[in-house]
Design a protein that fits this description.
Radius of gyration: 19 Å
Structural class: alpha/beta
Strand content: 15-25%
Shape: globular
Largest sheet: 6 strands, parallel
Bound molecules: guanine
Helix content: 40-55%
Strand order of the largest sheet: 1-11-8-7-5-6
Order of helices and strands: EHEHEHEHHHEHEHEEEEHEH
Mean pLDDT: 97
Number of strands: 11
């Protein structure tokens, strides 16, 4: 078998096109464009690239972006009072604080300070709690983007064996909740999982979000599986590689995401969807 590509770049571009038209309709009817505030603290190289992509996508869709580039030494109070101001700003529908944050800043405190109706990352306990209850409001971007990719295959997810490798708050845990909501039978693997190859081999839907290059061998993949690789790692040769050995996995999977060009663009497009949803459904 040679896997079909799950072309995140193309699907994300289609989503952005739809958002662009919706923003134009709003403007034509005299309603302001949605607004997204993006806060970057310090000079993390990967974060700078992610934030640049998010800002570019805002420009392309007509979403207003308000960018805050804070020094790495910023005090917790300064960051929290900026969030307080943005929480009250009627031009701002979404607030995103790019992670990771420097050590003097308490990440949980920052996430909890963002008003849940502006938490377009979907990281606030309110939004994760709503997702866990099966009544989501703002859903974390990467897992929501992965669900869009899975839906694009046309495969019925109900009853499928889904295995999530990685249990982070940002991807693994909300991903498991999304798959549960889609009525998959869900297994979550993490650092203490005893026999990872055995778990992976059961997966009809495999989502890998660890950040460990080539952790998942092609020979572990169940024939016919859908494989979604959330990992983006810099190989010593300079190339970007995922958490899955792509070429080998292609010989067994039915569907697979490339790295880059799979999940990454979907996260950005979904952030814009969440910002538009916040503007339309929560801030009318
Ligand atoms: N760092 C890595 N991924 C993300 C994300 O989706 N949102 C934010 N805020 N920071 C991140």
């Amino acid at each position: 078998m040679t896997a079909q590509l799950l072309d995140g770049k193309a699907i994300a571009s289609h989503i952005q096109q739809t958002i662009r038209l919706r923003v134009q309709e709003r403007l034509a009817s005299g309603v302001r464009a949605p607004g997204l505030a993006v806060i970057l603290v310090g000079r993390d190289a990967a974060s700078e690239i992610y934030v640049r992509n998010k800002r570019r996508a805002c420009l392309e869709t007509g979403i207003n972006s308000f960018f805050y580039d804070l020094p790495a030494q910023v005090s917790p109070d300064e960051l929290l009072s900026l969030i307080d101001r943005l929480n009250e700003d009627p031009m701002v529908d979404g607030i995103l604080v790019q992670q990771p944050l420097p050590p003097q800043i308490d990440q949980e405190q920052v996430v909890e300070r963002i008003r849940p109706d502006k938490d377009v990352d979907g990281f606030h306990a309110y939004n994760l709690g709503r997702l866990a209850l099966g009544i989501p409001v703002l859903r974390p971007c990467t897992p929501r983007g992965v669900m869009t990719l899975l839906e694009s295959t046309g495969v019925v997810l109900r009853g499928q064996e889904a295995v999530v490798v990685g249990a982070s708050n940002v991807v693994g845990k909300p991903m498991a909740l999304e798959l549960l909501r889609a009525e998959c039978t869900v297994t979550v693997c993490h650092i203490a999982t005893r026999d990872l190859p055995e778990q992976v081999a059961r997966a009809e839907v495999l989502i890998v979000a660890v950040g460990h290059p080539h952790l998942i061998q092609g020979s572990w993949i169940r024939p016919g599986a859908i494989v979604v690789d959330v990992g983006i790692n810099r190989h010593p040769n300079g190339r970007l590689v995922g958490d899955v050995v792509f070429e080998a996995a292609c010989t067994r999977a039915a569907w697979i995401t490339p790295v880059p060009g799979g999940v990454g663009p979907m996260t950005v497009a979904t952030l814009l969807s969440n910002t538009l949803d916040a503007a339309e459904q929560l801030h009318r």
